[in-house]
Write a structure and sequence with these properties.
Strand content: 25-35%
Helix content: 25-40%
Distance between the termini: 27 Å
Radius of gyration: 15 Å
Oligomer: single chain
Number of strands: 11
Shape: globular
Structural class: alpha/beta
Number of helices: 5
Length: 199
């Protein structure tokens, strides 16, 4: 997968996952706000939708292609194994930070692979899949940034995601803004405070 890796000063690795139409450059400023000393692994999605990079296909707005989601989640999980071996970082020290489509693939890692992440910062995510049993994520800290009037990701979606992750044992913190689907500096600062309290 196309990516950027920057070695840091501590053992944490921030996995940055962009939104639809973004690139591996998009979220780099977030890393400095969340943990300036962590290594950074910023990945570009392998799917193209009308020329816009994404991490998995969708059938239409808000409706995921589940088969592709499962396959792309497996691809990302295996890429993380390979990147850890290649760059020499600890596989169990990856904290994902994703926005929108990137948050959905990060959430999908938690829905499909036990302890695939040390923690996750999910900005404006949706429930990746329904009707499946989640692996044990006991003690995994998860931050969800949500918009009260998000037209793409309704509040009920956030609440459902929180409940499903909590049922798998994750410790979930939700943070609400009134700015729709966009990612705000205030939201990132809240995530940074949460991150400092967890790691």
């Amino acid at each position: 997968m196309k990516h950027i890796f920057k070695e840091g000063q501590n053992e944490k690795v921030l996995l940055l996952l962009h939104g639809t139409g973004g690139t591996e450059q998009d979220l780099l400023p977030l890393a400095g706000m969340i943990d300036p000393e962590a290594s950074v692994l910023s990945v570009r999605g392998n799917v193209s939708e009308n020329g816009m990079p994404r991490f998995f296909k969708r059938l239409r707005e808000g409706v995921f292609d589940e088969e592709d989601l499962v396959e792309r989640t497996k691809e990302l999980n295996e890429f993380l194994d390979e990147a850890a071996a290649h760059y020499g970082f600890r596989r169990d020290q990856i904290v994902a930070a994703g926005y929108s489509n990137g948050a959905n693939i990060a959430g999908s890692l938690l829905f499909h692979y036990e302890k695939s992440l040390l923690g996750a910062v999910l900005f404006h995510p949706m429930v990746p899949r329904r009707g499946i049993e989640l692996p044990d994520q006991t003690g995994i800290p998860v931050f969800i940034g949500a918009g009260e009037n998000d037209p793409i990701c309704p509040a009920s979606e956030t609440q459902d995601l929180k409940s499903l992750l909590q049922a798998s044992g994750a410790h979930v913190t939700d943070h609400w803004e009134r700015m729709g689907h966009q990612l705000t500096e205030q939201e990132v600062r809240a995530a940074a405070e949460w991150y400092a309290s967890q790691f």
